[in-house]
Design a protein that fits this description.
Layout lengths: L2 H15 L13 H8 L9 H14 L8 E2 L8 H13 L10 H18 L5 E5 L2 H16 L3 H4 L7 E6 L5 H8 L7 E4 L9 H13 L3 E8 L11 H11 L2 E5 L10 H7 L8 E5 L11 E5 L4 H6 L28 H36 L3 E5 L5 E6 L4 H14 L4 E2 L1 E4 L2 E7 L7 H20 L2
Length: about 450
């Protein structure tokens, strides 16, 4: 097949699949059934027809993440401008490590990071795109580690006083991974209990920091979670910044999910007040804001720390224009071009478009919480804090029942919802992050869940 024929065929396949408008949520099959349908062992050398057959199957059996009843993750579907950027990035296939190999992507990434620095209030900062917030959290911890232990980069941690990092007990597991990777040790990542509203107990945190310091350790890093994964809680940045001034740790903000509220001045003031005092901040544009996966950035309030922390090795063969080569301060060598789709989304919607989007999501979350609270079959397990709704269908053995209900909704191809634990309770974790969602669709989704729950109870 010629290249131009291939592109035409791709376009036809996609338009037939009409992914975004596809009415069906999912064709549910077990792994064994899918393996049989796919026949992955089949030979297909030079056989384009077979390749396209697999592509058709891929499209047929993958969940339609743009569907309003796909509420399984922190994202759904993808913005159309970013889809354009993603396709072009795939076809032009270059690496955003050097200016020479990706001149336009370099300028776009630099421009976008400047936009984000301004919104975050980091007047003299720097940033980079990374592969996601797990990675960004780790890089932030690495910068903090190398500031606290100045010879860590060259000599490792062998001669160092023990280092301790702190997060709330509701923080994301990527911080455990970071502590593992960076030689801090997961036991030296201290998890601090949260208050009723899910935010870190700052008094308790100070007590633990003092304990570490008294025993000769260094409290080098505190991560404020800005939108926890399950309950959507925000740690109090102002209180943490005051504590940082006393104990001199690095204060990082993990806004992977909830950081998107910086786009809206009212919500930023409500949930992210004082964020310009953070030492670093990350958020995923691919979550609430809908850019194609992956699209993440990490910002630092101060310049020149990323390059001295991350740059390494013999650069003789690669970096020729050091001022412009973004790969120098990245932990990767090859870097996928994630900036094009990000830039196109930004230009198409603008800050005002994203502001409106998060405001709509917030209003929908308020509406959904009221609906759940008013419905006798359902119960909120944790009061709504921001955009996350944690609720159960009331039943005798609630954990077992809600697991069954969730599985039945999927088997019926009705809804693909997420479950999570709040304490001991297994709850539906509904996140509002779908541009297709509106009050009517939310009501339909929840009424469908209630009807299926009642039916399950009837036949139990
Ligand atoms: C609070 C929080 N931090 C970090 C992450 C990890 O983000 P990523 O999937 O981009 O690695 C998540 C993902 O769900 C999250 O909820």
């Amino acid at each position: 097949m010629q290249e131009n024929q291939l592109l035409e065929r791709i376009a036809q396949t996609l338009s037939r699949a009409n992914i975004a408008n596809n009415k069906r949520l999912v064709r549910h099959k077990s792994a064994a059934e899918l393996a049989e349908i796919l026949n992955l062992e089949q030979k297909s050398e030079q056989n384009w027809e077979q390749l396209f057959a697999w592509v058709e199957q891929y499209l047929e059996y993958s969940p339609n993440t743009a569907h309003a009843n796909f509420a399984n993750r922190m994202w759904s579907g993808a913005n159309l401008p970013s889809q354009l950027g993603e396709v072009v990035a795939a076809i032009s296939n270059t690496s955003a490590c050097t200016f020479e190999s990706a001149p336009i992507a370099t300028l776009m990434e630099t421009y976008m990071l400047e936009q984000m620095l301004e919104i975050a209030g980091f007047e003299n900062g720097e940033g980079q795109m990374t592969t996601g917030s797990s990675n960004a959290n780790m890089i932030a911890m690495m910068v903090a580690r190398n500031q606290a232990a100045k010879s860590a980069k060259q000599q490792g941690l062998f001669q160092q006083k023990p280092l301790f990092a702190f997060v709330s007990s509701e923080a994301h597991y990527s911080l455990d991974k970071a502590a593992n990777i960076l030689g801090i040790g997961t036991e030296n990542l201290i998890k601090i209990n949260t208050l009723e509203n899910g935010s870190i107990d700052v008094k308790l945190l100070q007590k633990e920091i003092k304990k570490v310091e008294k025993n000769g350790g260094i409290a080098f890093f505190v991560c404020a979670t800005l939108g926890t994964t399950v309950r959507g809680a925000y740690d109090n940045i102002e209180d943490l910044a005051r504590l940082r001034n006393q104990h001199n740790f690095w204060l990082h903000g993990d806004g992977a999910w909830g950081g998107a509220l910086i786009m809206n001045e009212k919500l930023k003031a409500k949930f992210l007040s004082g964020m310009e005092k953070l030492d670093s901040f990350t958020m995923d544009f691919h979550k609430m804001l809908g850019t194609n996966l992956m699209c993440n950035f990490l910002l630092l309030r101060q310049k020149n720390l990323l390059s001295c922390t991350c740059a390494d090795g013999d650069n003789s063969y690669i970096f020729r224009q050091k001022q412009m080569d973004l790969g120098i301060s990245s932990l990767q060598c090859g870097r996928r071009v994630d900036s094009l789709k990000w830039f196109l989304d930004w230009k198409f919607y603008g800050k005002s478009g994203f502001s409106q989007r998060v405001e709509n999501y917030y209003q929908l979350a308020v509406f959904a919480a009221d609906f759940i609270n008013e419905n006798k079959a359902l119960e909120m397990v944790s009061e709504r804090i921001s955009l996350n709704l944690c609720f159960v269908f009331k039943a005798a053995n609630p954990n077992e029942f809600n697991q069954k209900l969730r599985d039945t909704l999927l088997e019926n191809e009705q809804a693909l919802l997420a479950l999570a634990y709040v304490g001991e309770a297994l709850v539906f974790r509904l996140l509002i992050a779908n541009v297709k969602l509106n009050e009517a669709k939310l009501v339909a989704l929840l009424n469908g869940l209630i009807a299926t729950g009642k039916q399950l109870q009837k036949y139990a």
